[in-house]
Amino acid sequence: MTPLKVRVDAQGAVPDDLRSELAGILRAEEPVAVFCGTVVDKAAFYGLLHRLRRAGLTIQDVDVHPDDAATTGRGGDGAGNGTSVATFWLDGLVGDVVSGVLSGADVAQQASSTTLRVGLRRADEVFDVLDRLESLNLDIGHLHVRPDARSAKPR
Predict the structure, then answer these.
(1) Bigger pLDDT: 49 or 75?
(2) Of the candidates 41, 42, 59, 69, which lies 20 to 30 Å from 154 by C-alpha distance?
(3) CA angle 2, 71, 11 (to 5 degrees)
């Protein structure tokens, strides 16, 4: 088990039962609920995301990395045309496997890892991608979900 540092920003009203359940990591509620802390492993992280989804919250921003790793910078341009871009850093050279399962994703292989950028059309589509990667038994080193700057409306 590798502990993970997580930060999840979510839009929507936080139900009282969820507020009580996650009191140790709920940092703010207005205008966006911010959940920030450490979870014991990937399963707990996935459980947190699914719990927020079941509560009716819309995931807007996710940052997760091993607890002992240095935090990487935020942002990225990614494969867009949607509301958000999810960037996954996968352990191992798995570009061919991922390309066959996630058509339309930008895949780049480094010396010992694979970076995957996926444009998300729906706020909850990140769960579809997580389910596909989990079904392939791939190790996710880092995950970032950010609004796609190209789809943002000018203010």
Answers:
(1) 49
(2) 59
(3) 90
What's the average model confidence in pLDDT over 24-41?
90
> Quick check: 94 and 146 in contact, CB under 8 A?
no
Q: Is the peptide bond before 15 cis (omega within 30 degrees of 0)?
A: no
Q: What is the pTM of this model?
A: 0.61
DSSP the chain: ---EEEEEEEESPPPHHHHHHTTTTEEE-SSSEEEEEEESSHHHHHHHHHHHHHTTPEEEEEEEEETTSPPPPP----S-SSSEEEEEEEESS-HHHHHHHSTT-EEEE-SSEEEEEEEESSTTHHHHHHHHHHHTTPPEEEEEEEE-TTTPPP-
pLDDT per residue over 74-118, tens digit each? 333 334 445 788 888 898 999 888 888 888 889 998 888 899 998
> Looking only at Cα atoms, what is the longest distance across the chain?
46
In the chain the domains, ranked by start, together with CATH numbers, are 4-66 (3.30.70), 84-147 (3.30.70.980)
